[in-house]
Design a protein that fits this description.
By secondary structure, the chain is of the alpha+beta class. The chain contains 15 helices and 17 strands. 32% of the residues lie in helices and 40% in strands. A twelve-stranded antiparallel β-barrel has the order 5-6-7-8-9-10-11-12-13-14-15-16, surrounded by four helices. Strands 1-4 form a two-stranded parallel ribbon. A two-stranded antiparallel ribbon has the order 2-3. The protein is globular and about 110 Å long.
């Protein structure tokens, strides 16, 4: 981050605090003054006590309530003439109007303005390379610019050049360091500005979601220790570029779970799951909502098409093509096969548990129609948890997910030359909530149900390393992918410092061009389960239905800034 010389923003903020304190004492001081002057006017009547325009309301009509109209506010302290609402006595008018009515808000407004300027100054400092020495005084004196008030790319080169020339140096710095991704699109800026903006923007632009909502459901049939289930999910995500992604997910699972008969509460289970997902991308929320019903209907028809009801299959075959035509082809398709192993043990009124999972996914994307891609993704999940209570339970847990992805050019079938990106992702989700549930019935038959609700805190770190087409970079990527460090899944290395001179090429690529984001979310999740069981000839048979919802929104978003030209260090910068 950039540096200041002979300037301490903290002391400036302290000054703003003093202004607030002074403003708080203005009103009682002027109220006392108004009482003294009001008494003086009464003693001198009918003579004129003062010719001051500031005291004129009091002098003209001492003690008379102002039943109509407003109370004038003076321009003496730099505030434009205006009016405060009546009615008030003249003493109250003086206490709350001409003098303190302008001084108090002026001081508070000045304090707020100083804080806003300090905030902008800090934003620029964090975004600027560490070797850049900023003129803090000029930045503080310059009005914070509207970062969205940038000319459109089609405004014309002359208009853009005139706009840039009309800015003060401190205003240019605000745009350059805080909005480089916008400046790089403007023809008409000086060549060196465009070059610097393009370099800074390259590291800033990392796709990520800003909010999401997902509804899901499914059923599970158990016969003895064996379990078979299927389900669905519908997910809507808003991305940082303003687009919306809507994903339909269809999943199936086959597994087994054993519970010890000595009632010690020990259970061990394993599941193999298969999942298919299609994602559509919309330019804005209105388009996403417009086609939401079509997507819901398409999912319903898809399930009918794969069902056993002949009438449903025929109806789906007739109806589905029209619906899919309105929706269009998905931009992203995902197929996943995964394995989960989980276990738990009851200890008094507490049940600790843990779940391990591993997935292999193939993701096909046509977001860039000129360069479609195929991504192979492998990830693992560790989910420790603790449940306390019997009927009303408290749930504590965390989910750690690590992912390694290799993105290849779909148009190039040669695996030795088609790598375009290596991506490392770590997701840590903390969960806290409560469950209410219970069972009715005996050993032969019964019903059960539960409802779970709670909050989530999620932190996602993504390291995106673009790979060039030359043989050296392709070989370095393949070497790293063939034997990635074990820690790469648990927590990807963030390239804040330049690699050692003898470091491997992949590490240098991650530092020199790696795009890194760190995004935090807060959300909530709920889940309803209803089930029944019956024992026939000693074999337990059960059916369980699940429905749930979860949503989250971004609360903190940062990216790793460009390497400093002199020191090579990189620092995290808040995304504005």
């Amino acid at each position: 981050m950039g540096g200041f010389q002979g300037f301490d923003p903290a002391r400036v903020r302290e000054l703003a605090g003093h202004l607030d304190s002074v403003a708080g004492s203005i009103v009682p001081m002027h109220r006392q003054l108004s009482q003294i002057l009001e008494a003086a006017v009464a003693d001198m009547a009918p003579q004129q006590a003062s010719t001051s325009p500031e005291l004129q309301p009091l002098v003209d009509n001492p003690g008379v309530p102002m039943a109509t109209g407003g109370i004038p506010i003076s321009k003496v302290y730099g505030i434009p003439t205006g009016y405060l609402p009546g009615p008030r006595t003249q003493g109250e008018a003086l206490a709350g109007g001409p003098l303190p009515g302008s001084v108090d808000p002026f001081l508070r407004q000045t304090a707020a303005d100083i804080r806003a300027r300090c905030d902008r100054l800090e934003q620029v400092r964090r975004a600027a390379p560490s070797s850049v020495k900023l003129d803090a005084g000029a930045l503080l004196a310059a009005d914070p610019v509207d970062l969205n008030a940038v000319p459109k790319p089609n405004a014309g080169e002359q208009a853009i050049a005139k706009w840039w020339a009309g800015l003060k140096p401190a205003q240019r710095e605000q745009y350059l360091y805080l909005k480089p991704e916008t400046l790089q699109t403007l023809k008409g800026l000086p060549a060196d500005v465009l070059q610097q903006a393009t370099r800074l923007a390259y590291f800033k632009v990392v796709p990520y979601k800003t909010s999401s909502h997902e509804s899901a459901g499914g059923t599970k049939l158990s016969i003895g220790i064996f379990e078979i289930g299927d389900g669905y999910a519908l997910r809507t995500e808003q991305m940082n570029d303003g687009t919306y992604r809507v994903t339909m997910i269809d999943n199936e699972q086959v597994g087994a779970k054993a519970v010890r008969s000595d009632k010690k509460g020990i259970s061990i289970g394993g599941t193999v799951k298969f999942e298919l997902g299609d994602t559509w991308v919309f330019k804005n929320k209105a388009e996403a909502e417009k086609l939401q019903k079509d997507i819901d209907e398409a999912y319903f028809l898809h399930r009918q098409l794969n069902g056993t009801n002949p009438i449903g299959v025929i109806f789906a075959k007739v109806r589905l093509p029209d619906v899919l035509k309105r929706i269009g082809e998905p931009k992203i398709t995902t197929s996943t096969v995964g394995v989960e192993v989980d276990g738990s043990i009851g200890v008094g009124n507490a049940t600790p548990g843990i779940k391990f999972g591993g997935n292999l996914s193939r993701i096909t994307s046509t977001l860039n129609p000129q360069r479609p891609s195929v991504t192979l993704s492998r990830d693992f999940v560790v989910e420790p948890s603790l449940t306390r209570g019997k009927v009303v339970k408290a749930d504590f847990g965390a989910v750690v997910n690590g992912t390694i992805q290799v993105v290849r050019d779909k148009n190039n079938p040669d695996p030795n030359t088609n790598i375009t990106t290596v991506r490392l992702i770590q997701t840590v989700e903390g969960k806290l909530g409560g469950t209410f549930g219970g069972e009715l019935g005996g050993a032969k038959a019964g019903v059960s149900g539960s409802y779970k609700e709670g909050g989530t805190n999620t932190h996602v770190v993504t390291v995106n390393v673009p790979i060039g087409a030359n043989s050296e970079e392709q070989a370095a990527a393949r070497k790293w992918l063939n034997a990635p460090p074990p820690a790469a899944l648990a927590g990807p290395a963030i390239p804040t410092d330049p690699p050692a001179p003898d470091g491997d090429l992949f590490s240098r690529l991650a530092h020199d061009r790696g795009q890194v984001s760190a995004v935090s979310y807060k959300g909530k999740a709920s889940e309803l389960k209803l089930g029944g069981k019956v024992t026939i000839d000693g074999i337990p048979i059960g059916l369980e239905a699940t429905a749930g919802e979860k949503s989250d929104r971004v609360v903190d978003q940062r990216y790793l800034g460009a390497p400093d030209p002199k020191t090579g260090t990189r620092n995290f910068v808040p995304i504005n």
